[in-house]
Amino acid sequence: MPKLSKRAIESLRSDGTKTGTLYWDTELRGFGVRVFPSGRKTFVVKFRTHSGRQRWLKIGAYGPLTAERARDLAKIELAKVVEGKDPATLRHDLRNAMSVSQLCELYMEAASAGLVLGRKGLPKKESTLSTDRSRIEAHIKPLLGQLKARAVTRMDMELFKTGVVTGKTVRDEKLGPRRRSIVKGGKGALTRTLGLLGAIFAWGIDSGHVEQNPVRGVRRFADAQKKALLTGDQYRALAEALHALEQKRDRHGAPRHSQIGIAAIRFIALSGVRRGECQQLRWDEVDALGTCLALGETKTGPSLRPLSQAAFAIIDSLEPISDYVFAAGPEQAGYQGLPGLWEMVQKTARLSAETAAARCRDEKPPEVGPLDGVTLHSLRHSFAGVAEQLGATIPTIAAMLGHRLSGVTGGYILKRKLKRGIETANH
Distance of CA 153 to CAs 137, 160, 204, Å? Predict the structure, then answer.
């Protein structure tokens, strides 16, 4: 049999054996091609391990692989044998190795059992676990789930970055009555998901499931979470938009928008609480005598929050119809519609600005609304900025926000100080 070349391989025929007829290459020992009765031809390698066991390894099918490329691949596998390795066992182990999806599942099981520590060495809170699950299902599994965890490369991570940023994982699915699954991509989503993915692989290394962390060294975009501080005009636009939504009625005279949700947004703006803290606020956490909140579960643990008279008045106006202050829905649990309602607030403010501009013939309609780019979390940052402007100290603001003194309070008011300094310099 001559050297296996394109011409030689195309002339080969099967002798009818079901397992295929073997033809060996005269140049590279152990390299051959198996010809089946159907005409299909497959490149193979036969070798003996250092322990003396005979092994077979399939290289690939002729057609997709040329004879020369198959020979090069065979040389790589045979070189592993010389190094004392068993290419067949390595391939078997890789084929049966844990996928990224399976690694994520094991990580979440460990995290749910309190075995994965988060901030300050404490187990992750349920809200954090919920966010982690969402990011795994929304971005990690669709783009990386089928890959073997041990085989994920830097190139895979770069493709993952491109996929999330360009919106390959974006979706909007209806899950049932008043329930939707909305997944958004973008640079912010990528940065936070990479942080989680890096933690999963780091845990995988500690647990012996993987040997390296492919996320380490991957460059990330700056996490540009909206931290805009509202101006006086924006606060006015917010108040007017909430009032307009509060007054809207359907044809039966019932409120068109959730009055509980509107009250919740007002409370966030006046108290600086986080969205989740507002949604999950319970009546037994409200101290009417001390006009404060005694929160049992927050990102920094138990927290005592003083309230202004205006913020407390919002709570005081609500009926305690369930354990939750901002109760809504058939189960009277914490109101969950804040993201959608906030979008309606932004739209209402935008339309109001356009209407005002239309009344002034010389004024061009605004390209963006007064609350576009502002998030519910921006209300928390702005609360801190206003408090600092009124003379509150950083420890006082930290207490109102529920931050630890060594925490991130300074970052909440830094923009206000920088902005003020720039304005002073300009004058």
Answer: 21, 11, 15
